[in-house]
Amino acid sequence: MDSLHALVQQHIDIKPSTQIQIPYNRDQLDCICSSLFQARDGAQLVAFFTQFGEEQLLRPEWRTEAVRLGYIMALYHAGQYERLFSVITNSSFSERNYKDLQDLWYRSHYKENESKRQKELGAVEKYRLRRKHPPPRSIWDGQETVYSFKENSRKVGFKNFLKNI
């Protein structure tokens, strides 16, 4: 938590506040986090989570998928990649969010690797990272996608092809 506060203060000019009670109910909190996540507004999400304190927003009664998604975007924006990987791996998400979370998963690995190497990654390096770090089961149904078709779709298409020959 302290490292998140430090990163926020480096990237965003916010005075550290004492943790205040959350003046929102669960639905309002979900709406705020969803809106900021969909807008990809990482700076506002970092400020939002810092304002109330990570511990308060991640209490069991507030732990909804929308809050987790917002928290993950804040972690990405703050450069807390290891924590982001941990939250994604140890949480469950609905299938409609898989694409966004897989995108964040890969972009986090790219950014982490770019910061270590101090240079931008090329297509081959990105491909190798995708193979080395596949998304966890929490954000992936396990089916390989080849030419925009999932494994089950390819099997059905091939079976119909054989039937029509």
Automatic annotation (TrEMBL):
<keyword id="KW-0371">Homeobox</keyword>
<protein>
    <recommendedName>
        <fullName>Homeobox protein SIX1 N-terminal SD domain-containing protein</fullName>
    </recommendedName>
</protein>
<dbReference type="GO" id="GO:0000978">
    <property type="term" value="F:RNA polymerase II cis-regulatory region sequence-specific DNA binding"/>
</dbReference>
<dbReference type="GO" id="GO:0005634">
    <property type="term" value="C:nucleus"/>
</dbReference>
<dbReference type="GO" id="GO:0000981">
    <property type="term" value="F:DNA-binding transcription factor activity, RNA polymerase II-specific"/>
</dbReference>
<keyword id="KW-0539">Nucleus</keyword>
<dbReference type="GO" id="GO:0005667">
    <property type="term" value="C:transcription regulator complex"/>
</dbReference>
<keyword id="KW-0238">DNA-binding</keyword>
<dbReference type="InterPro" id="IPR031701">
    <property type="entry name" value="SIX1_SD"/>
</dbReference>
<dbReference type="Pfam" id="PF16878">
    <property type="entry name" value="SIX1_SD"/>
</dbReference>
<feature type="domain" description="Homeobox protein SIX1 N-terminal SD">
    <location>
        <begin position="24"/>
        <end position="137"/>
    </location>
</feature>
